[in-house]
## 1
Amino acid sequence: MKKEWENFVVNEGWRMKNRRKNQTKSKMFASYIVIPVLILTVISCLFSSAYYEVSQRRNLAFEDSASENVNEQLKGVMDNLLKSAVQYSMTPWVRRLKYMQKIPDMMQKSITASDILDYASTVSLAEINENLVESIYIYYSLEGFGISSIGRVTWDEYIDIYGIICEEKSVQTGEVLSENNQQAIYHHVSMIKNGKRMDGFFLIQTIPMENTYNGEVNILFYVSYDALCDYIWKFAGDGTEQLYLTDGQEILCNLANRAGDMEQIGKELRTEGAEETQLLPGDSIKELKSGEKGFVYRKSLDKYVSEYTKTGMDIGVLQILEPDFLRSDFFSFLKWIVAGDFLLFGLIVIVSSRLTKRSYQPLEHIMNLIDEKNRENLDEYQLIEHTLKAFNSQKERLDISVYEQNPLVEQYLLHNLLNQGRLRQDEVKYINTMRRYAGFRCLVLKDSLETGQYAGEIDACLAVYPQIHAASLKGENCYIWVLSYGEESLVEEIVDTLEQTFTEMDYREAVMAMSGRYEELLRMQEAFREAVCTLSYHYFYPERKLLLYDGDFIGEREQSKVTFEIADGVMEELRKYVEALQPRAVVTVYCQLVWYNFRERMLSREKWFAGIHELNEHMADMFRDSGREEALERIGLLEPENFGSLDGYLQTFEVKITQLIERCASRENPIYTVRNQMIRQYVEEHLADANLSLSETARVTRYTSTYFGKYFKEQFGCAFQQYVAVRRIECAKKYLLEDPERRNMSIQEIALACGFTNDVTFRRTFKRYTGVTPSQFEKENLSET
């Protein structure tokens, strides 16, 4: 009874001491850290709020000026078109019409396609070039004939040649050409030019002849929407997110920010979450018209919008401002503010830590034995070790009272046991005093970015069970808990609790494993190795949060002697599907074989990986035997060890094998085979020609350079220049090694013979593809020979 009372007094004294220490720490923490940080935060917020308003107004004013410039450019383009049409009345060709209109027959015979060139040579189009005006048609209403850049054609012939489709029936039928005094735009007109259909509009301008004669000339300019958008986009501000061409009522054409590829624009316009803010051709803009210059905020789009329509014409432009652009300067300013705050916060922490240092000592009664100078250079384990060595006797070192028993001492001893594999008898006695239970298991948590948070959750779950004594320590790539317990049912409850907690919290990166049960503490290293081994089997169970060495048959797998089984019938079935180029069947049989060996054969992880490598080698042999080795080299086989889970490996395998078989199928087309052989032959015959290029080869094969480049990369698996470089390097290797008569050639002579312009380029290219210089390559291979 007396001894229990003494223990109670000692424990109460220890609690009161800790309580006073915590109160002191709280006051100092509030004084030296919390208050300065709060003041710093308030000042930063005030400055940031003020600068936010200023920077947003400044950026909006800049974008308003850019928007006005875009409007002026559109106005200038349309005025220039009208001016160019009016200038027709002063060209030699129109003057000829005036004098020849008395004799229509002579006019029809005398007017030729070259007359359109007279116009192009005499009329200066400052802002309108061939990228903007796609076609010109001149129609003489008196005799009903027309002329274009392709010669004298009727309107019906012109429609058929260019495949023109127009929503306005009067334009499609040509009725509008008989009308006089016109100055109008007709939208939604499409034509085919250079094999590509484009959308745009017709601008019709009437040029009157002399008043003494009947008849007028109607000039039609066809302008592409895309070309006009591209031209106007050059003058848009940096913050313009979207630019639309309109007819004053609805959208005609769209162009997104940083656009270079219209297909990519279409994808961006239809990305998830963008349906409410993106406008498409045909959408009405009535609600967006404001009548004001510059950008105006529109709540329906939650963005700033600028709209302009040219007076007297059905053409305009709509600009939408990127919201983040208005805040770009503020974000840059905010980064500096945050960086400055962190710097000041660090200084505050350093100063306050100096003032509150002694209140944070976890082992104050031990640390007093160490001088201040030595303590600063020691970590936690070294600190405890240094303290224990400073005790006067063996008895003082380990036979300490309950008052001085501390988890950090146990942690230090377990750390030594894990790394050195041994403890003295008195050290084991000390740990057993702390443990109170004979049986123990090792729980391991895989290290990750969120390990600290996961470790806190594990500690919280273990704290619910006072019947379990848990000591944690940090390993190289994991956290370790040594769990001492009495009843085995407690382990089952802990496993269920951890599984449920980590699943509900959606901790996807959390991976845990538990060893089997051990009685002797000195076998801790063995228990740790079991837990780490179990951790590696998470590869096959990615959905599991916690694996057991004994409960999940990991131990049985590790002791199993069976090997990966590949039945002959399965291999024949795989070979049949590979030769038939059936990717789905290949993937199905492959996955069934993989899962069969893991689930039914009870293979260890290492033997399973070895079997997968063997299976992949058989797969490679199948492709080689079927004459598809080149395609196989381009795709390559997978390494299962490089994937985080078996599911991920099989999914990637399915994608890769499908690509491989599809490439093989495309290469077996007879047309491609003949064409590819012709390309190879041409390259081989011209390897020594330094002027061998993609454009020249494309010309020989009668393709455009762009199409030929894409076709070559798809069929040969690399760019044309890379293929030529590799073939030239192979040719150089033959000169260096295989040709005795030319072995005495200099490096420069070999470079010129292989198509390189000089020896410097040859040396650099040779080393890039072989890893050594030509001289080193020759020396190494000759020495081996």
## 2
Amino acid sequence: MEKIETFFVDFIKKLGGKCVTHNADEESFVWHVRPLPSTSDIQHPLARSQTDHEFPFHTDCSFESNPPEYMALFVLEQDQLGGGQFEIIQVSDIVNRLSEKSKMILLTENFKIAVPLEFRKEKDIDHIYGSILLDHHQIRYRSDIVLDHKSNALNELESIISEVPKYIPKLEKYTMILLNNRKYLHARTKILDPRRHLLRIRFNKPALYDVFSIYNETKLRPEYLTLPHTLLDYFHEQHTRLYKTLNLIVQQYHQSTEVGAEIRRTFQFESKIHNLLCELNIHRPNFDMGNYRPDILFTKGCRFTMNGKHRFEPKICEINARFVWNAFLFSVAICPGDNDNQISVNFKTMLDMIIASSQFDTTKSMTILKSKENGFDIHLFQKYWINKYHQNCRIIHPDQVHIINGQLYDRNDGYPIQQLIMELHQDEILNFSDDILHNFIHNTQLRYMNDLRTIFLVHDKRMDVSQEDWSRLLLDLNHQEWIIQQYQESIQYESMNLSGMLFCSNNRCFNLGPIRLSPNKIVNICHGGYFIRPFIHRRYVYCSEQDEILTKTKLHEQLALSRLTHSHWNRNVYLSSSGGSGGKRLFFATDIQENQRQREILVDMMLSKNVLSETDVCLNLFHCKNMYRSLEIFNDFCSMAYCTVLPMGSDVEDDKVLNIIEHFRPNVLMGSPYRLMQLALFIEKHHRTNEKIHFEKIFFACEPLDNLKRDYFKRIFHCSMCLGFYGSAETGVFACQTPEYATTRLYMYPKELVQVDIANGQIIVTNLVRQRNQLIRFNTGDLGRLIPTDDNKKYGLIEVFQSQRLIDLTPGSIMKSDIEEFMNQYDFIEWQLIIENESNNNNRTILTFRCVETTNTTIEHMKTHVNNYLTRCLGNSFSIEDHLTIRFELISYQALIRDQKKSIIS
């Protein structure tokens, strides 16, 4: 069997395939597809392919971030009883029948996909998130491991899969089937013959070239520069203008017009170049610009933001068009691969599109003319051409070119040159004989890049000049000519200058590419510079028409507008209720599936950080009435974590809660600090010595937990830690405390769920999973700061100082909105709450309610209401009189009206 496996692997390698392992075993290239005896070993379960069960249509390795491109099956024994039939369907047949809505969902939404235990390459990764459609013609799908079962798009996909035509190749002994794993789905009927035995190899096509065989890999920084999507819109707009301008310069160069004369005066070419350009315009009027690469300076300005905080103004500083492939192949190699990054999109197809537009014949050899220029990408292009088109690609010195009867040849071996790439400086081109230059002009059968007009007219390398140099040059009477260009000061990033690259060919702008950074004035990779990749969120994930912070008021205005403009605004939504300013009731709508995914991401973090575990039994005392969702949210967390939950709610009597505690012995207690305080006071009064009350963890939310309450809870509930959860009705719960941060104000959040920024000390949140009712740069109303962590890639850490929604009092906090709601019950024209510490006692706080009244108000009635509210918020375990002094100052409205007569006299 080992010899057969070796033969199979060698065969795939000779086809040019790169075999992929099946699991963590580095030699697991060959997988045996045959029914095995069933096992009860949970740690080593059988794969679906190792049973005799029917296996519906699926993609192999759909649980990997990058499923293998190809799969090979080698038949050792076929099913002699007619079972185990191999079936395939074409993905294009499926996609053509999908509705546009479902197609967009399957293309853009990330679904949770389980990784089967037997195929895990990393122990701690049991699932991934990914789209079902990889593009419009490729898929990753296996229905039994897709955990988002509620999607209508998935239901439509399943329905279409059952309807499209099937292809049933015959499996005979020692036959081999090669299948494109992404463009076809395959299935198997139930196996009837237990001797059926196939070998399987998954493999990819190797890269057409190794970028780091030429480039120094250490020069590529692992970080990204985050840029706004509006920057790409700006570059496309600028490129449209640039392309029109460059075309006009080329077309008008030889014309007897004012524009043509001005262009010629500007360039002032020598006669040989001038005549060459004029003849090209006459004899090759259909000008193709070919490849050109405008370089971008990141200068000081306020147009765009980098990494969410650094402002800059992009400016085109020069146009590289002399060396056709300069940095193109490097960018194609390092930029694709991230579906959420807009930078990745066009680089996947850029080379194919350029070759097609150049009209090169891919069935013929290619010649590269090269001498002085060392070049990087031109060597990568040579490998690309050979491996992609299986044609020769030779690099020869320009002196080897000679002409016989109007045909170019290699002087050394007499090989005809039918198409070529020029990697030449302008002076090297001018060194060609007149016959060869004449051939470049008149031989329309000869294909070459770039056009000589591009090299001489479009290519533009200008150096900036310092103020000292200006003075010296302009005062030098012997200096005959110079080029004047405005000096643009680059933004300094820890002594690093930045220079971007825009990749263009003819009238198409593909994308912004890698950004070069260097401490030197000239940003050069060979002299101490580095590359860093840009990251621009895809629009469906992260987009906003205005670069501003979103407030709660503005957000709910948007939702109100949505009610008027979208007839189905209230369908398939998860509604959360929250209090607004002045006590106004507000509702926030989230897509049901997106809300579910947010909770799944957070629970994954909770499990990995030991916040929850499958062995936990949780008593849930959160609130649930009147559309408040706290109870349900934490029930959901427990269900997703596969732990037991006791959903009691906040309104149940304390003695009944105690009965449940004694019966089920939960180890986790959940609730708001206010509800937990009620239970603690009841236990302390009636059941102080009850040994059955013992909790390992307390989960709290809805309001802060001060140290006094924390210590009290630990004593009454015999609990070792209290863990807080952070979020709001608008953001959802997106962060929680972990055991290592239980005694701090630090909260951990998954970076795939939210992006957290700090603006003027305020916590600003962008939800990265919501496409419907997007939440972008939302001001939570809290103050805090970001904390560096050892796990920067996956999780972030934020310290929450205080809430702008809350008023901090010793020993607790009260809600501003509750105070507003309470005060609005009274007929006051204006009111003000003044909070200050007593001058001789810093531990005592004075609350002064100053009110402008129109009618007489009973102060005692107000005092009673305020005391009841503060008792509810701060708890009964301490006396309000010991910590607070409450004053009321009533000001009559009439007393504020100025006597008009006295005012005139005075």
## 3
Amino acid sequence: MQHQECQPVLGNENTAFLVYLARRDVQGGDGSHFVLQAKNKETGALAAAKVIETKSEDELEDYMVEIEILATCNHRHIVKLLGAFYWDGKLWIMIEFCPGGAVDATMLELDRGLTEPQIQVICRQMLEALHYLHSKKIIHRDLKAGNVLLTQDGDIKLGELPGTGTGQALARPSSSSLGGRPMAPEVVMCETMKDTPYDYKADIWSLGITLIEMAQIEPPHHELNPMRVLLKIAKSDPPTLSCPSKWSLEFRDFLKTALDKNPETRPSAAQLLEHPFVSKVTSNRALRELVAEAKAEVMEEIEDSRDEVEDDDSSESASPPGKHKRDPSEASQLSFDGEKPPDSSLAKAVNGPVRTGKETTDGQSDKGKPDIISQPGQLGNSAERDKQPRPGSKERKSIGERPESSHLENFMEEKLANGSLDPPAPFPGSRSKGDSDSGSTSASESMDLTISLSADLSLNRESGSISLKDSRMHKKTLKRTRKFVVDGVEVSVTTSKIISEDEKKDEEMRFLRRQELRELRLLQKEEHRNQAQLNSKHQLQLEQMLRRFEQEMTTKKKFYDTELENLERQQKQQIEKMEQDHSLRRREEAKRIRLEQERDHVKFLEQLKQMKKEVKNEVEKLPRQQRKGNMKVKMDDFAQKKQTMEQEFLAKQKEDLELAMKNITAQNKKEICDKERECLNKKQQLMRDREACIWDLEEHQQQEKHQLVKQQLKDQYFLQRHELLRKHEKEREQMQRYNQRMLEQLKIRQQQEKARLPKIQRSEGKTRMAMYKKSLHIHSSGSASEQREKIKQFAQQEEKRQKAERLHQQQKHETQMKDMQAQCESNTNELQQLQNEKCHLLIEHETQKLKSLDENHNQHMKEWRDKLRPRKKALEDELNQKKREQEMFFKLSEEADGQMPASPTKHAKFVPFSSAESS
């Protein structure tokens, strides 16, 4: 076997695998990955290698979520991650290998759905796995039969975990289940309302749909276009089983409980584990039998017993029966993503599959499903199975057949019992008009027979039942015999089915359906990438805006803080300069006053000297004998007076000096107080300007942020509309192709019917003519010429009848074509209506979101303005308090100055500046 060694990039040498490139099991529904079988080089353990081609790092990041979730999950019913590698431009995800393959592939391999015991075991184990995932806040979001894998031991494992990562209880819309089958109604609504999250209850809905798929091979609404399914999910009642009577009441009740359109009342996985349908499951024997049967050795036998179809120019002979043995089937481990078309292997012929042996008792032999000899629900009864008779040739009457066909067969056998003409194949159809007159021998009764036969055959063609030609063409039967061992007991199962000529068409339809799903998945993947890029862009814009807001606010505050510091520094410098000027002025004024006082004092002393001279002169004017006594008295008085006057003069000078100094000090204090008041007013005004600027900036920033968020919301909805229009265009294109295929298939079928009708008419004409001649021979009446005339009339009647049949077929084809065109137009109109509703709903939702955003912004601005008033009041109160404190300080300072002399070197006290940021 060809193999190539994969060098590990993520991991170590112990996790290196040998990948067998020859084993390409399955390709992803979107064409993005394929799965190979891998084998560990050292341990020999098998693994499934999911190989994903990644073109960029962004695509690689998309798959990291799945890797992280798989790495954190450790449960017996969830596939385990064995390793992850990036090599040769591809991401290799090594996961646990499940030999049993996927459930959907197993059903296709066995050509039937699962039995109820098998569904019970799978349901029980799926609920256990979901309970584990939901407890870790992980939503699977892609539950379907293709993601339920079977092990050799009869257990299931959930694969393909694209769900929400750990820690998220709610989820946004994702790329899960594009076909729409397992999607819950709340998930469907997310297509137009992206901000509406859903929770783990969506997995419960998908579980119910998956159980229906396992019971019926196909999920509900599988025959519809994928986009029409979304409309069904959103507007119709929850789906149910097509044949409820075949299933137990507990199963039907379980589906009814799980498929609740209201997620609030829908039960959880833990609650469903207590449901009677799964609570009593203790063994997985049913699944072990299923895996053994699917992996069993298959013996195929083809029986081709087609009768010869006589023609005027050629005849067809039956081919000999073929018999061959093929290898045990291997169902793929990972099934195709998306929707599966109807099974091409199911019998399409209206006569149904050939049934052999004992009737099955599990209620699974529905229309289009092969019959099984033994009872699938009771595979353990090997003794009974071994006693089953070999397949015979007994045919099972199909659903489309009328029960009266057996009467017609009996009638024909009676009519032709003694003739040489072999009886033709049974004519399914209505009861013959001549049924009660089979013993009549008149010619009119013979005509009644031919008319009755004509009516029967014509009616058969009108009702779409099988014709003579059809009955001969659908005699090819495929028998499959499977032999396998369960618990040491050998079991043999034989199935029979009609090989349909439409298998190629079904396979083509399956391929086209996969292509459509792939196109939609690629669109959705691109949409998610564009959405992620837009979200990243918006997040970056918001972060940049917030950083700019913070920088603007910091710049404004820093500017005003700097202005306040400069103002305070200037004030301090001015006050210090005023103090210095005051000291200098005091010294100069004191010096000037002292000089003046010294001059005045000198003058005063001169005056005293003059006064002394005057006193002496007055004494000298007295007689000589009086002079001596008066001189002494006068001089003593003068000395005393001089001392008093000098003291008064000096005191007056000192008082004048002190008064002048006090006036200068008071004037200087007044100037300093005025300057401090002026500076305080400037600081407070600057603080007001600072806070007003901050408030204006806050308001502007909130308005700008609102406009940005509003524009981002518009961008989001613009992208949604753009992606929705692209998706709608793709849907219309697919619908157009679908309608074109339906019309082409109808044309081909009509052409085949039109080409087959002359052959059928010739064969029928020969048969009817032979029957008529035989009836004339049996009831010989009249001469040979009369018989020839009757035969001629019969031939003319046959020609008219065949012409009428051809005309009727043409009219029927025209009616079918008109109906098909009307149906195609109806499909297109329905799709257009659905798309218009989606667009209208998206526009309405955008309008509501924008309106809600504006209302929230207005409410926020109102609350902000309401909170702004107390902030302004608090600022004014603080500024007024500082003014009062300053005035109180000045008042106390004046009172202190009134009690003690002012010091020439005393400096004014400054009011410290405190920032109003906190306000």
